[in-house]
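Journal club prep, notes for RB
We'll compare a predicted complex against what the paper describes. Inputs for the uridine-5'-diphosphate-glucuronic acid case:
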Amino acid sequence: MAYLGHKVTCIDSDEKKVAMMRAGKSPIYEPNLPELLAEAAVNLRFTADYAEGIPGADVIFIAVGTPPTATGSPDLRYLCSAAQGIGEHFDGAFTVVVNKSTVPIGSGNWVGSLVRESYEQHHGRKAEKRFSVASNPEFLREGTALHDSLYPDRVVIGSDDQRSLETLYSLYRPVLDQTFASPTYLPRPEDVGAVPLISTDLASAELIKYAANAFLALKISYINEIGMLAEKVGADISQVAKGIGLDARIGTRFLQAGIGWGGSCFGKDTAALVATAREYGISTPIVEAAREINKRQRERVVEKLLGELKILKGRTIGLLGLAFKPNTDDLREAPAIDIARKLIERGCKVKVHDPVAMERFQHEYPDLNVVCCREASEVLEEADAVVLVTEWQQYRELSWEDLVSHMRSPIILDGRHVLDRARLTRFGYKYLGIAG
Ligand code: UGA
């Protein structure tokens, strides 16, 4: 938003984060984010104080976390406190309060009532038509967040109030019309034209977010289910994915077979969709099956290693990649953590490496008893098998040929189906895929 020319004040209750951002440092790893922060600095302020950011704002985005709880429903504590903080501090000039956080269907109305109550309590007068709530779901992917924000496939805005829709329309105008100057490090792709705007009621926008993520999760689990069959019949799952994906009705994206999805979104959002449906007395067997298959994919790693090594106790297993996917240091729901735990339970010694998530890993999982390697090649040293968990580009480019002799037994389990089987086999590796 700041890059597009809007004046933006970012509020976070975590003073440490605010201090970092003020110093131009991003608290997360995201390609090109530091460059963009520097370029947009004139339009950006960071504060931990609501009073500095809320009064006078035309639009307030709520972008707090909504982490999952044990029941599958998201934890809405932060959403609640943000809505109350807004109500307390906003000065009564018309403001659009936008839910950017992924929230259960119906939360827009709830946020509205929280803002209203808080405003009335602190100002001693009715909020009436001083604000309205909109939903503007997020479709960006970690690792390609800037690209997805500047060149999105579509923008969805939902509100039951026409004025809010118009405000958001003008806010997104530079993206919709693609009139902004592209950053030099992120040129506009040639096929990007005008971006479609979907303008809906509040509930539809909220449902679009969950339905989109569940569908993408489903696609991944579908190809993984077919992958299990492919292995049995001796088919090549990558070719199968290509062969079906080129049917435009299916599409080639999100058909990459492997360990399955991780991250903070698909697991949480499919769980929330199932939980919401249940509240309405509806079952969602397709989404539940997608979740089940995803869980199974992680277990397959252990099964495959066991099948090959016969005994896991006392073995050394190397994991290449910790982040839930390349180009991020995000470890939430990362398959690597789960897999490391399972292998340790089986009595293995586990060695790990990640190009950017190592520090975060050591900070967040100090008790996980693994050997952290500074170089990817160290993971292979004396290992009985190595699993490619996250498909970082540098792992594709490892000097595999030289490293084969460093392993105790040169078994490579390609958890993402990205390595060249024929080449590795030629170097003397025993190559295993998750499916075949
Ligand atoms: C996902 C959605 O793709 C975004 O559109 C959405 O905005 C975001 O969630 C969100 O709700 O905030 P993200 O979780 O950042 O984005 O990452 P994805 O690129 O979707 O990858 C998710 C997981 O699926 C990764 O672990 C990835 O390795 C896995 N994946 C992806 C596959 O196993 N196969 C594929 O073909 C694609």
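Talking point for the session: The radius of gyration is 24 Å.
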